[in-house]
Amino acid sequence: MSARARGRFITLEGIEGAGKSTVTAALTRELTTAGIVVRSTREPGGTPLAEKIRRVVLARGEERVSPETETLLMFAARAIHLDNLVRPALARGEWVLCDRFTDATRAYQGAGRGIDAQFIESLAGAVHRGLEPDLTLLLDLPVEMGLERARQRRLAAGEAVVDRFETETHQFFERVRAGYLEIARREPQRCRVLDATRSPAEVCAVAIDVMRGLEFRGSET
Ligand code: Z5A
Description:
Rossmann fold, five-stranded parallel sheet, 8 helices, binds ligand Z5A
C-alpha cells in the first residue's frame, strides 16, 4: 500500500461491542507502516466542540431528548467534525478512519427509533455536501454477543456509568442491526459486511484486505 495524493475516507459501523475500535487500531497500524498519514476519529465527536455535543447527546437523565432532537444533535456534531477535521485532513491527502458516521444515524435513529428516512437524508445532503465514505466496514454479529462484549469491556475498565444507548432494549439493537444490514444490501459498492464473530486477528486481517482493495479503485472524488 502506498501513499497517494488524495486521502481516503473509511467508516466503521456496527452495534455496540462489534469491535470497531479494535479494527480501527489495526487499520491505523497498517496504514502508518505503509507511510500513509492517518487520522483516526469518531462520531459523535472527533473535535473539541463536537465532543461537547457527544457528552450532551449520550448523557442520561437530565431532560427528555426526543428522537428528532437526537438526530439533529448527531448532525450538528457531524457538521462541525466534517468542517474542522475530516475535510481538511482529506484535502491534505491523509486517510480518515471514522468510528461511526451517517449510517449510524440511519441505523440507530432511523431503524432503531423510527425517524423518517427522508428527514435523515435531507440532513445528510446538507451536512455531507457531496462527501461520502470511500469504504464502509460493517462489523456484524448477533446482538447478545455484542452487548456481552461491551459489558465485559466495561467491567474490565471499571466503568459504572452507562450512556443512553447502553440502556436500550434487545429489540432496539435488533432493529439497529437489521437497519445496518439493509444499508449494506442497498449499497454493496461502498459497504462490506465483515463477520465480527470471528477472532480479533481474523476480523482485522479481513478488514486490512478489504482496505487494500481501495488502492485499485479510481482516485477521483
Ligand atoms: N450513535 C447514534 O445513535 N447515531 C449516530 O449517528 C452516531 C452514534 C454517530 C456511541 O457510539 C453511541 O452513539 C452509540 C450509537 C450512537 N451507542 N451505542 N450502542 P460509540 O461507537 O462510541 O460506542 P459503542 O458502539 O458503544 O462502541 P464500543 O462498545 O466501544 O464498541 P466497538 O468499538 O465496536 O468495540 P471494541 O471496543 O473494539 O470491542 C469491544 C470489546 O470486545 C473489547 O473488550 C474488545 O477487546 C472485544 N473484542 C473486539 N473484537 C473482538 C473479537 N473479534 N472477538 C472477541 N472480542 C472482541
